[in-house]
Amino acid sequence: DQQVKQNSPSLSVQEGRISILNCDYTNSMFDYFLWYKKYPAEGPTFLISISSIKDKNEDGRFTVFLNKSAKHLSLHIVPSQPGDSAVYFCAASEGGGADGLTFGKGTHLIIQP
Amino acid sequence: NAGVTQTPKFQVLKTGQSMTLQCAQDMNHEYMSWYRQDPGMGLRLIHYSVGAGITDQGEVPNGYNVSRSTTEDFPLRLLSAAPSQTSVYFCASSYRGGTIYFGEGSWLTVV
Predict the structure, then answer these.
(1) Which chain B residues are closer than 8 Å to A97 by Cβ?
(2) Residues A104, A23: contact at Cβ < 8 Å?
């Protein structure tokens, strides 16, 4: 029973355009959501997070949107750059992450020149 | 500025052998955890700790043991390695409600 789902294993976007990565969750107790970026042979790198009391959080080119009623969040990257090519993981937790994160399977983002 | 340090980076074990994956953080974080990542899967939580002397099981704890005697260290022990434990292991740490930082990973192969 997957509590965090990323239904697109891969996504190809042209450089300079917007990349939109989607994530759905089933556990209504999740109150903290994060996006991580991962290159091969490296650990996940934190990108951006959002608390369940907000519906939007921005950090530079990255914006995360949270729709609690739909149990859906999305990561927008604008504009997309070649260095954004990586696997992106959506993660969620209860209680601020104290008892660990539940991850989706990831979306491989490919930025084409 | 070391952050989260994992050793070893690569290890090959024979079935039945034991070993310990080391994890150390220098950020004085209360929370530490271990995850494994298998091909085509997200990271899955093995064990976690909310402070020295306190540990708990995650989603996939079987075959693994942990202890937290200091704030800085959170070793993961495989008592009798099995081929199913071939995976990439990541250690993470954070303050409560803070950014969760990951180590660079330990690649383990059990033959």
Answers:
(1) 31, 94, 96-98, 100
(2) yes
